[in-house]
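Bench notes, bay 3.
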Amino acid sequence: MLITGMLALAAPTAEASTITDFLDRIGGCRKPLSESFSNEVSPYTAKPYGKPLAEWTNTDIGEFRAYFVDCQARRRDWQSIGDYNRNDAIRVIDTTMAELWTKVRDARGMAAKQRTDAASEARERERIAANERDVTAAAARQTLAQQQTDADVARRTEAARTTVLPLMQEMFAFAQNEMSRLPPAEQLARIDAYLARLQALHGEVVGTKVEAPLNASIKTWQEQRAGLAVQLGRDPSAAPGQADGPYTDFEWLGQQGLVALTNPLQRETYRTSLARGIDFNVGVSSIAASAAGWLVQLSGRLGSPGTPGQGFFCRVDGSDTASLAVLRGITPPYGIVHVAAAGVDEYVLENTPVHIRIVFTGCRVTPPDNGDPRRPN
């Protein structure tokens, strides 16, 4: 009675599962468990009893056992064989079930490991793909940055050519047409002025294709200057204009001012150097009345009216009749005079915004001295 009750509880459900349906199709109770088990539950069978072992649920295993227990209960002699034989038949089924449980657990573990490995491999593939994307993006950024750098260099090179090449052409014309006609001292002053202009431009052309020819030009003119300094008995290693008395070239004076404007560290040195005074031929842009005389705006280019209130000026005392007589005879901005002064009484040199106003005091004005009377020194 006990076994009969257990069999009733273990009977398959009315709705056949994948496994019980498979058992029905291969012969049902007519095919012994031992025979079908050895065929189905093997490494060569992907879906034992119609379903991969890793997907077998506890319910599947219970139904599998119940199926074969029910097969035993359907035997004609089941009631007559006695409890011992009935229990032995159930034991055979449970022995097979124990092996099935082991294989199901192993299959589940293998499937879990495969899922873990697959997830790990997927993460690794994503990591590699992300790294490749990062490398590609970095390469694209580097390419873009290089393109931008090349474009910037090209733009700066073109801009530098518009300023450096005209100056180099002017210097070449000076070397070919004028230099040999000037005395060595004036040659030195003119070279110093050109070197100052070249060096002032150097910061603008660093990294461009103009930098190398500019450096070569600076070196050539420095060598030329050193030879002239030796010829004049001066120290060739001394800075241009150092301890040379008053400024004797207006262009050099202006270029030194430009260098000091762009480099604040040189402004005090430049301001101190102005105490040496000036002594050169120069153009006159304008003449304006001042409190105690006249303010003469100086120019290195004939015909240039200059910027009102900015630039270099020479203050002429109202009682200096000789200087005033010379000034009366010129027509700004085309007149040329010779000016001499001992120092400055106004000094403004700022670059934000650009403001240059340097006024020499006690100026003496005379007609332009020897040299080319058509242009300033």
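Next record in the batch:
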Amino acid sequence: MELYCGVCTYHQSIEVGQKEEWKSFPSMLTYGIEHSTSALPFLFVPPYQEPLVSRQQIDDRIRADLIRAYHAHIDEIEEGWVPHQYDLFQCPTCHEISTRFWCALLLEKEIIEPTHQCERDGSVLTRLSLDDVAQTPCPNCCEQTLHVR
């Protein structure tokens, strides 16, 4: 898919949804290796190799925190099911839009989701649905004229 502005020259390739090669959570955060009995599947992603969900979509600290939280609360997560996909995120300050990994660990008393930060200014990114793109400021000209094709 492509995100583009109807006023200026802004355009960006985006990815939303799940990839076919992903198996169950949290294996896509590593190499796709199923290690649900081990609390440390993160060790299978050394810094010099790229996991299935790339470091451009989720940094290693968040990746490790999600895997640890999953294993710490595996008994609370119904049938071990965790919704997960690529989603759009936007910086509330500079309006930069990026594709990031999203998931939700649905626990009895809380929901654990990754918190992504803007690489430019450190602001916490907000999740953006495709339905809201038309009301979203363009990162280039700040007009609300973004479209998806």
